[in-house]
Amino acid sequence: MMTALALGIGSGIGLWALIVWAFPPRPSLGVILARATTPPAPPPILVTEDTGWAAKLGRPAVAPLRALGLPGERLGRDLAVIGRPVATHLAEKATLALAGLLLPVLLQLLLTLVGLSVGFEFPIIAGLVLAAAGFVLPDLQARSEAAKLRTGFRHALSSFLDLVWITLAGGAGVDSALHDSAAIGRGWAFAQIQRALDTARLTRTTPWATLRQLGEELDVTELAELAASVSLAGTEGAKVRASLAAKATALRTHQLTEAEADAQSATERMSLPVMALFLGFLAFIGYPALTQVLNGL
Questions:
Q1: End-to-end CA, the chain
Q2: 133 with 100: CB under 8 angstroms?
Q3: How far apart are CA 121 and CA 283, in angstroms?
Q4: Is there a domain that residue 178 lies in?
Q5: In sequence order, what are the residues at sequence separation of 6 or more whose Cβ sits closer than 8 angstroms to the Cβ of residue 278?
Q6: Buried b (16+ CB within 10 A) or exposed e, 176-197
Q7: Residue 295, Cβ neighbours under 10 Å: how many?
Q8: Which of 30-44, 61-75, 203-217 reaches the highest mean pLDDT?
Q9: Does a structural domain hold residue 163?
Q10: In a domain, 187, yes or no
Q11: How far, in Å, CA of 90 to CA of 75, rounded?
Q12: Are 222 and 251 in contact (CB under 8 A)?
């Protein structure tokens, strides 16, 4: 019964995905009007790269997955942070899911050739489990990589703030302080900041506008706050040296708090294996005595 149910669900999902891919749904009138009246968005600052054999192999599955609304808004931001195109990500998800679905079948064929058999239900159940795992695995990897990059960006941003307010204290202007501070640093975070400032110079826009856009693309609120402070200095003539120094101090304090919380969490996780060993030792000692008591009854 379970085998027939699994086969029926898999066949239904496959047919539905094939129909959506062959006959994609038409957008509503409101969506078409919104596309026609909305001004074009500025080009993204973050650069994406389309590479990998899995992306090329699973490219036909991109349109059906997009019709399902994948990926979500939050995952889309994570993909932008790590520099992976949405189409490449969806293609990798489809490829890994298909590989997980076919791997138990190939294993069953190999075992059949050598004269062994694990049953008819094993490749179906194992294939569904591996397909689900392969479909979810790219999302988990993207979230993990994006979280690491955001953490590193916040660390670099605190150094960038220090450099900016020191340069401002030396008598430099806002634009020159931003460009000089970004040119000093090295690494992925400073490269993104420098790319945003270069975009502002080439497109003849204000640097705080591109910094705000970069903060929105990276989902780093601290960068948007920096852009707001710099915009006050650029438009209203406000003195922001003390504000930038306070923001840098607050950002470092927040990072130290997060580091202490992570360390305490790691310490608590280390106590779990010790407790498991202790319980196993108690069971090892108490089992002979419990067996003697039960046999004596």
A1: 46
A2: yes
A3: 37
A4: yes
A5: none
A6: ebbbebbeebeeebbebbbbbb
A7: 7
A8: 203-217
A9: yes
A10: yes
A11: 11
A12: yes
Q: At a CB cut-off of 8 Å and minimum separation 6, what does 68 contact?
A: 20
d(CA 219, CA 28): 30
- CA–CA separation, 97 and 101 (whole Å): 6
The alpha carbon of residue 293 and the mean position of all alpha carbons in its chain are separated, in whole angstroms, by 56
Grade residue 80 by pLDDT with cuts at 50, 70 and 90. Answer: confident
Tokens standing for 133? 């795992």
The span from the CA of 219 to the CA of 227, in Å, is 14
Domain count along the chain: 1
- Rounded to an integer, what distance in angstroms lies between the CA atom of residue 221 and that of residue 229? 13
Establish if 291 belongs to a structural domain: no
Looking at residue 144, what is its pLDDT? 92
Q: Which long-range contacts (CB under 8 A, 24 or more apart) does 208-216 make?
A: 208/234, 210/45, 211/178, 213/42, 213/45, 214/45, 214/46
Half-sphere exposure of 255 (CA within 13 A, CB side): 17
Two tokens, residue 218:
């990276």
Mean pLDDT of 183-210: 88
Sign of CA dihedral 162, 168, 174, 180: negative
The residue whose two tokens read 């310490």 is 267
Residue 211 · residue 227 · CB < 8 Å: yes
9 closest CA partner among 92, 127, 107, 113: 127
Per DSSP, helices labelled H in the chain are: 2-22, 29-37, 53-57, 62-67, 73-82, 86-113, 121-169, 174-184, 188-203, 207-218, 221-231, 241-296
Domain interval for residue 158: 151-253
Q: Count of residues for the chain?
A: 297
pTM comes to 0.71
3, amino acid identity: T
